[in-house]
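Q: How would the structure tokens look for this protein?
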Amino acid sequence: MKKISLYISFMLVAGLLSCEDKLEQAPLSDASSANFYRNAADFQQAVNGIYAQLRRYPDRTFDLSETRSDNVYGSSSTGVREWDPVNDFATTLENNTLVAEAWNNNFNGIMRANTVLDRINAAAVPEEPLRNRLEGEARFLRAFYYFDLVRWFGGVPLYQTVVSPAEALNIPRSSVEEVYALIMADLNKAITLLPGTYSAADRGRATNWAAKALMARVHLTRSGPTYGIKGPGLNVNEYSQALTLLNDIINNGPFSWVSNYASIFSYTNENNPDIVFDIQFRKGGLGLGTTLPGYMGPPAYFNAIPGIPSGQSGVEMREISTDLLTAYKPGDVRKAFTIQSGFRDVNGNIETRSFYRKFLDERDPGLDRTDWPINFPVIRYTDVLLMKAEAILKSGSGGSQQDVDVIVNRVRARAGLQPITGVTLNMLLEERRLEFAGEGHRWHDLVRFGRVIEVMNTWLPKEDELNRMAESINPNFVIYPIPFTQLTVREGLYEQNPGY
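A: Here is the predicted structure in token form.
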């Protein structure tokens, strides 16, 4: 039984959810907040509320990473869906609701984490192991939200305590380096405070292994190219630091290889040994489930399946790119599991386009389109292994070519493919694409590997059958613009990212 999903239900009942389309740095009510944080149970519920802000994360990775990348051709039939400008590389994205959601949602999570960190103390939570764990979770999640922000926007305002709206008006954007400093300080502290495992009742909370894996990803991202912009890559060569963390997870962590690819994502096999950190969902109404499986699929598909509740899907198909479809080799079991390649609608018409089905199980649809009961993997053990291969290839040390080949061939064998030798960075990037399709890694991988401009400028003219996307992109498109609503809060407080 997945207790972690109660984070969301608690927030609905307790009324601590702040508005999703508005950044509220100050507590909702100073008096009510002061009265609320009185004992350990209050702080546990408050930490649950920080997790609750992860609810939109799976959709966001689909909108801003998969749809932005060469995995998805997301031009809608009318060209006016909110994801169209993301897909098309429009320069007007400062007004886009999906971009604004990424900013607001993450900062609301940061505000919740700051509220806990500001108030937690020995008087309210006398049991030191619990107090340490709660602080560790808050620090892990604050780092998580800031890492999401720095990858999307570059430098952002740093809030290390709860501030009032008036105080927030005087806090400018910090540099990328300063944001990373807070992320890494929080993760280092979380590693010392968090336990390695939890009982079944608390399964799904961040562990010290999750903090180490996220820190390794931070090191790899920081080590990526700068592209001449103020984005997530700093070219700092921290591959040895990443390797140390990844080897620790591999050698000492509680994770292990799952031999069947489909079982990693099975509704009946959640929290399996491949999961290092995921976002927990369950069906039952009240927003406990995830929207992602239906969000990825078109209404016509779901309407043709008996037993699927009406309105179970998103508004329109975002089709899988031809380039991704043809990237899978014959016999690769991941393709059929990950992608629904066409279907027949309720009227018997044949749809030839494809969409992601990786998180979809038609046998267990939940009550409505917001209620799919499948967890979303953020960091997998397979990812830890492939990040190790990346660090070895990037650094040229800490391991051998044979080590890299062994890792990649283990992934390929599970997919039903023959082994290869002499794996290069480009080959590794392609293997990551096929392994993690639909999981929101693709855009970040392209950026981190230094290939995003080359790959996308080759892909755009080939795939854009409706002739809506930009003819080419430049490094400014590595990150998104600061939302217009933030630019107008106080004139001159934030400077817009170049190119928008």
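Residues 381-450 form a domain with the Serine Threonine Protein Phosphatase 5, Tetratricopeptide repeat fold (CATH 1.25.40.900).

The longest strand covers residues 350-356.

Upvote if useful.
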